[in-house]
Each structure stands twice: as structure tokens, then as C-alpha cells.
Write a structure and sequence with these properties.
Layout lengths: L2 H23 L2 H8 L3 H8 L2 H22 L7 H18 L1 H10 L4 H29 L8 H24 L5 H16 L16
Helix pairs in contact: 1-2, 1-4, 1-6, 4-5, 4-6, 4-7, 5-7, 5-8, 5-9, 7-8, 8-9
Organism: Streptomyces uncialis
InterPro entries: DesT_TetR_C, Homeodomain-like_sf, HTH-type_TetR-like_transc_reg, HTH_TetR, Tet_transcr_reg_TetR-rel_C_sf
Protein name: TetR family transcriptional regulator
Length: 208
């Protein structure tokens, strides 16, 4: 088996074990057994348990970010892009529950290297949402009423709410990605709406 394929199998197994058991409870023996390889081979390819965990965090963060970016079509209106990006986010987290658990539950508590990967992922997501909010305001003629700092704050709140809803959707198989999107948009869009409305023209000055 080519090395790249074998490494992918080991990472797949590691994500499942770390996601279900957490970092401290996870054993390299369990990962090797699930991957179908001898434990020394895991150490040979991916060195220590910490290195393996960081590799899992890096891969899962990249996969989630790629899924969100892939769900957004550049030519669509900003609101449509935001909805599609959120839908891609929820679809990915529901389809990859162990990967989401590694990112959301375990990575921040296990060392600076893994925490930095999650911070970088969140920064990218907040930046993407910020750009969409600013673009939507500009399209509606309300950009001058929405400052950069305010847009970032709105994006932070939206991403935080999305993370919480992903936990809810992951724990309840009856919740669909589309339902999670609708719930989030119903909650946040009314707050965004004033910034996405055209600025009314100033009334004419009365003649003296």
C-alpha cells in the first residue's frame, strides 16, 4: 500500500478514536488496531501521540474550511452565499461527527499547536462571513451605515451560533442541515436587516 494511502487510513482511524474518546483516553494501540497496522508503524509514520493528534486537527480543520468555501458560489448574492456556506458547514459537521468533536471539543484543551489550528480555522470562517456581510450591505446600499468593526462583531456572533447549532444537530439525527440553517438565519437575519437596507435619501432642505 502506498505510504500516502496508509497514512490516510491511520489518520481516519485516529480521528475516530480521538473524536469518541478524547485525547487522554485514546490509546495508540486502539488507533493501530482500527487502522489495521502494527503500532510501531503508527509511530514510524506519525511519531508521537501528540503529533498524530495535531495532524488530525490540521486535516479536519482544512476539510471543514474547504467544504464551506466549496459551498459558496462567487456570483451569487451575498445572502445566498451566506446561506449556502452555512448549509455546507452543517452538512460537513453532521457527516463527520468525530472530526467535529476533535475540533470543537478536544483540540482547544490539548496543547498550543492543536489550539492554534482551531483558532486559525475560526479566524478564516469569521473573515469569510465578515466579507459576505459587508458585501450584502454594499449590495443593498447600506455599506456606509455598517462599519468594519461592527461587521466583524456580527460575523463572530454568527459563527459562534453556528458552532452551537452544529453540536445540537450532531446530537439529534432528526435535525437536518437545512433546518439548522433556517434556525440560524431566523435568529440572526433580523439583526442584520437594518444594515442591509438602502439608506434613505436625506430630506431636502427647506427654502428660506
Amino acid at each position: 500500500m502506498p505510504r500516502a494511502v496508509r497514512e490516510r487510513h491511520m489518520l481516519d482511524a485516529a480521528v475516530r478514536v480521538f473524536g469518541r474518546q478524547g485525547y487522554r483516553a485514546a490509546a495508540m494501540d486502539d488507533i493501530a488496531e482500527l487502522a489495521g497496522v502494527p503500532q510501531p508503524l503508527v509511530h514510524l509514520y506519525l511519531r508521537s501521540k501528540e503529533d498524530l493528534f495535531v495532524a488530525c486537527v490540521r486535516r479536519e480543520a482544512g476539510a471543514l474550511l474547504a467544504a464551506v468555501r466549496g459551498g459558496v458560489r462567487a456570483g451569487d448574492p451575498a445572502e445566498r452565499q451566506l446561506r449556502d456556506g452555512l448549509h455546507a458547514f452543517f452538512q460537513h459537521t453532521v457527516r463527520h461527527p468525530e472530526g467535529w468533536a476533535v475540533l470543537h471539543l478536544h483540540a482547544r484543551a490539548q496543547g498550543e499547536s492543536s489550539a492554534d489550528q482551531v483558532v486559525a480555522l475560526r479566524t478564516e470562517l469569521v473573515g469569510l462571513v465578515t466579507r459576505l456581510i459587508v458585501s450584502a450591505a454594499r449590495d443593498a446600499g447600506g455599506a456606509s451605515a455598517l462599519g468594519r468593526r461592527e461587521a466583524v462583531g456580527l460575523a463572530q456572533a454568527l459563527v459562534g451560533a453556528a458552532e452551537s447549532l452544529a453540536v445540537w444537530a450532531g446530537g439529534d439525527p432528526s435535525v437536518t442541515a437545512r433546518e439548522a440553517v433556517s434556525t440560524l438565519m431566523d435568529l440572526t437575519w433580523p439583526g442584520l436587516a437594518p444594515h442591509l437596507s438602502p439608506i434613505p435619501p436625506s430630506p431636502p432642505h427647506p427654502h428660506p
